[in-house]
From TrEMBL:
Designated name of the protein: DENN domain containing 5B
Taxonomic path: Eukaryota, Metazoa, Chordata, Craniata, Vertebrata
Biased composition, class Basic residues, residue ranges: 712-721
Low complexity composition bias: residue spans: 159-179
UDENN domain span: 53-597
Ranges for domain PLAT: 971-1079
Chain positions covered by the region annotation Disordered: 154-193, 700-721
InterPro entries linked: cDENN_dom, dDENN_dom, DEN5A/B, DENN_C, PLAT/LH2_dom, PLAT/LH2_dom_sf, PLAT_RAB6IP1, Run_dom
GO molecular function: guanyl-nucleotide exchange factor activity; small GTPase binding
Repeat recorded as keyword: yes
Protein encoded by which gene: DENND5B
Taxonomic source organism: Esox lucius
Amino acid sequence: MSGTNAASGGAPCRFAHYFVICGIDTETGLEPDELAALYRWLEADRQGRDPDATATGENFEQSPLKRTFKSKVLAHYPENVEWNPFDRDAVNMLCMPKGLSFRTQADAREPQFHSFLITREDGSRTYGFVHTFYEEVTSSQICSAMQTLYQMHQAENPSSAAPSSTSSSSSSMDSLASSLDEADPVPSSSCRSVACSGYDASRDTLYVSKALCLITPMPFMHACRRFLSQLHRAITAPSPPPLPLESYIHNILYEVPLPPPGRSLKFHGVYEPIVCQRPGPGELPVADFPLGQTFTLLGVENLVQLFTCTLLEMQILLYSQDYQQLMTVAEGITTLLFPFQWQHVYVPILPASLLHFLDAPVPYLMGLQSKEGTDRSKLELPQEANLCFVDIDNHCIELPEDFPQFPNKPEFIQELNEVLLRFGIYPVEGTPLTSTPSQQALRELEDDGRNGNLEGEQLAMLELLQGNATLEKLQALTKRTGVHVEALRGIGGGGEGLGGRTGFEEEELRNAKLNVQLREVFACRFTTMFADYEAFVIQSAPDLESWLTNREQMHNFDKASFLSDQPEPYLPFLSHFIETQMFATFIDNKIMSQWEEKEPLLRVFDGRIDKARLYNVRAPNLRSSNYQKCTILKESGDLIQIPSLYLSPSSAQAIEQRLMKIDHTAIHPHLLDMKIGQGKYVQGFFPKLQSDVLSVGPTNSNRWSNRTATAQRRKDRHRQRTEHLTLDNDLKEAEGCLVLLNSMAFWEWDKASPPPLKPPKKSASACCLKYMQEARSLGKNLRQPKLSDLSPAVIAQTNWKFVEGLLKECRMKTKRMLVEKMGREAVELGHGEANITGLEENTLIASLCDLLERIWSHGLQVKQGKSALWSHLMHYQAREEKLEQQHIQSMGEIKTDVGRARAWIRLSLEKKLLSQHLKRLLSHTALTKKLYKRYAFLRCEDEKEQFLFHLLSLNTVDYFCFTSVFTTIMIPYHAVIIPIKKLSNAMTTSNPWVCVSGELGDSGVMQIPKNVLEMTFDCHNLGKLTTVQLGHDNSGLLAKWLVDCVMVRNEITGHTYKFPCGRWLGKGVDDGSLERVLIGELALPSAEEDCGRGCRTPDMQRSPGQTRRVSITSMGGRGYKPTSGQIQDAIGEAVNNICKHFHKPEKERGSLTILLCGEVGLVWALEQFFNNGFKSARLFQKTVFVWDFVEKAVAYMESADQMGDMQETTEPLGLTCVSLCRYVSAINSTSRNIGKDGKFQLLVCLGARDHLLPQWLPLLVECPVIQRMYEESALLRDRTTVNALIAVLQTLDDFPITLEASLIKGIDL
């Protein structure tokens, strides 16, 4: 069996895949970091300088001890693993992200631990754990080269005795680079002064960093940290280790398996045993990074905000001096996403050579190392419009604008605090820690202890220091002076704790229990919010192949129904979250599970939901927003039953049981068949390992194995093999690898031949993996930057993928916006209803704003301000003309450039000018070339044209996304009164006035100057305009005024509303009204205005037109008389529209005024009902109105009541009679001159509001006045029809009808 084959055989189930050593190659000597040179090349190209000339020169400004030198992978074992090919460049870059680091004897040289991960294209991850230490340089060539470099540095910089501050640059990337150049651990003040004096080969001892790395398939961070730490102790100890180092490395590579699901495993390091455990199939997935540290670093509220940003797939940048803290926070946040998974670029540690990746116009989660004292205000990032910036060291977070809060956030934070306090953790809440030097020294020790950077003796010192003020001061003093104090032996970490466990094991158990309890709280939130998600999954495809083929055209989740079923406070967050890629992938996995095995996270989540239903602990009311706590485990181990998910047995209990009773023990390290004399032990130096024994796994011909494999050993191995084979089927590896493979190491120690290895069964999703990656590729073209090849050509290809991804995302978003908008309008066109921008629509528009910001941020030459789009608009405005910017600039309520850009997008979209404006903006090619690099999206002509075309398609629908969002701004309105000139005077001698009302308020009464038919006024945003009150004081000779309509225009959005009238205003004419309430409709733009905007949908609002009003006036326009059937249909339709109005989400209901008073509204329909069979006026007699009938009926009731005729009626009927008389009296006594038709409209509206219409109708029908004023055939005299009308009107009693203030002004009831 070849080395490669042997290595790859059991790879998927081995604990570790590779052992790697990185450091300096003494044969090639000191080499400048090629990646740093590439970075300088890119920056020079961006700034327009000659990149080739820049990249070739040495960087003499920096001290050689601070420069970046190239590290190399010195060795890795085995050579290759089939399941996980070795990526030399990526591993080298992530093991030593800053390259080689040099120190002298005067500098601090404490070992450091950090971890990293590599995400492959299929989304699977490989974890790396790195122990970095300093080793003395013994090569005279290296020492003399460093001496020469320092002399050259002195010659170039005579004043370099004192460290010079880096000059500030306007370049965003320059500021990032400067933050990384010197981001090494900060030495003490005495060390710093020596370091600044330089390097002298005759005086100083030179040290260089070296890294030991384990690469594993699963994140067993604690186990790997302890193993590497023991390896380092073995080379620094005065005496050699018990066995050669090759024995321990060979053991962990080939003889230690992954623990099976739900089991624990013990294996041996150099000095001490190491235990790791793996959650069972029903538990949360493995997560070994300490969540308690994440909460301590950020504070609970900041972490919940960061968690929300991650769920909403924003761009997230973590910022810290400590690599391990970057990794801990990143892994902690992604761990808490269960059952969802981050689907985009994920680079917890971003090497300096990949800074250009912050320019990526896609969601990402990246970590960037800072240096001490870096000022955040000087750190310019390529794009910040949708960025969540997390400053870990200063415990603060900067959130994007328009950020929805996580549901039940205060209660959620309270529950998390309770869990943390139970474990004695007091997280800081967003305030930098202030401490004395002694406290700071203790805190540094504590941080090192958490990060695994302390050995056993140092941990003992830490435990002694904690709680002892005198020793704290002593330790701070010794750290400042550079004197090392020997730790007191026998105290702390080396001793055994409770139950025979060491201090290490106690701490790991505590961290594991805290981890699982914190994760359970987060998991319970999702279980509560998505308890019924399956009911909204749309499974319409008959088989997997047809579903995959039509994936993009299919709706997989009924989002509208799901949102309508949620509590109102949850909607801002949920409406955004269900649009994310992680939620789409979750639903995809759910649909595919009907044809293949469930994805592991989905299986666990569905199992929890099923268990919740089984125990019937779900909230009785779906729409309840009451917070439900999670079931938690006390320190004593007792379960508390709080109304939530009942977990049995507890995950925390299971962890403790696994660690108390070890399920499996791996083979001990043993002597290998090695060449004698190689790899001799020298204290302080890591030996050169014998590659021939580490490149292959154990074989049956191993002589040592044959000598020591006793009968008892074979018996033990057989017992362990049986345990593996008898595990439940649920304990199989999710990847399809049988648990049998986990015992491969045990098989190989016996003489019996191992069981045959079978490759994992290929599932349907694996066969269609390529298609699924393409189908889910929105913003996910690159999960992680490719680290193996970073040539300019590859970077250009990466940017081209970004361009393609942005174009596809634009196409998908505009298509979605059109389908959602037109689908809703198609239903409503016949209803005559207004429709306010809904929550889901607002979410889509906010997503479009984010996309445009990312497009404008891609490939920027020099960043100016947080919004690249607004910056471009300002540049254009300075050179050419304004594109609506003046309206946005005058809005004092908007304080940031990001807010101004989003307001501009919404305004342009509402005016149907977005595509046209952007086309004009990009037509200035000279400006575009000045602002953007060659590869930028905006300089790709074909893609740019397609992008503008997709935006142009949005002109086919109406949006009110500006009007409905910026509700407090001042807007200028222009009103024009248009009289009917043929039938009356164009002017009136009286004093006219007008009051404009909308969904957000009214303008108040405004006097119109005499002989002027138009006026302009400024007013707070009224929203969509609904009514206009128009009237005059009836003064002068020409007081009668026949008005055709009133037109009102919003001067910012350009929307024009028409308010038809067609009635007289004046005493002694028409119904004698001096004021009228007019119902508005959005006017269609003229051909000139609409030119270039594309088509539009038919109007969504209808209002009472002139034809309807004329038909019921005294002007002889009674030609139109609807039939009895038409009248009854109209009443049913009007009531039905009101019912549907209240069944919509509150923010999508539109104007109730239009449904009551508009064309085919309730008032109009009831007018037709009362006018049917109404006796017409005789010749030369006064016109009679419906209100005359109502007044006479009320007068009869009042007189009858005074005479005692109504005393015999039942009490409810008597009360109803009183209420009708009171309402009519109040309407008649109002100071308003609204006329008889206006009074009838007011009575109907008040009766509908107070649910009295069905009670009033019988009174009017029973009144004897009806016989004098109505024909025998009138609908009002048909008892069956009236009873049917009463039944229809009673359906309105279930709804809280609220009337607009303009309708009931002056009525005191």
